[in-house]
Amino acid sequence: MGGLEESKDVLEQRYDYIFFTGSTQVGKIVMGQAAKNLTPVTLELGGKSPAIIDETANLKLTAKRIVYGKFINAGQTCIAPDYVMIKDSLKDKFIEYTKMYITEFFGEDPMTSEDYPKIVNEKHHTRLLGLMKGEEVLIGGRFNQDKIEPTILNNITKNSKIMQEEIFGPILPLITYHSEDDLIKEMKDYEKPLALYLFSKNKKFEDKVINQLSFGGGTFNDTIMHFANH
Hints:
alpha/beta, Aldehyde Dehydrogenase, Chain A, domain 2
């Protein structure tokens, strides 16, 4: 749609139908403008897509697939894992594997890697740094005027600033949970995500997630692969 002014001009026109893919913020503008002409709308909006890990998961493979799905295009995809919900007893080992795969994919210094892209613009770069500010960094955290390296944050809660909006960048918060019931209860407090990724070999837990949580699409034991069907 272009920039804000171009988008406003486009939305002044009359359409038979509008299909919009983008942020929730812009989606509200599209919906509001469409309502003036009673134009039907379909919105496919981004959101905070979780990756959930339980004790039955292949943790090494899980870390590899989350690193791939999260940091491709420096996290600037609408279905990237936005945060990780991990069983508390698994966190330390997951961090170890995550660090290993970040290095394998992007080298010892991702900031100089040709395989690791820039943040799309200065405004977005500044917003991402604001989300990181004051949080505990486990991995990464460095940045220059163009890039922010793959970053893992620790001790994040649902009230943290970074949990109030879609990240859309190379920052991955870790949140621990103790039991399946605790996890389901907390997940229901969040807005419904565009995508959900569950890493588990427990069929009963898979069924519980499917039946009790609502999400746009998802993949079990992998990330972003469901989008390959589009």
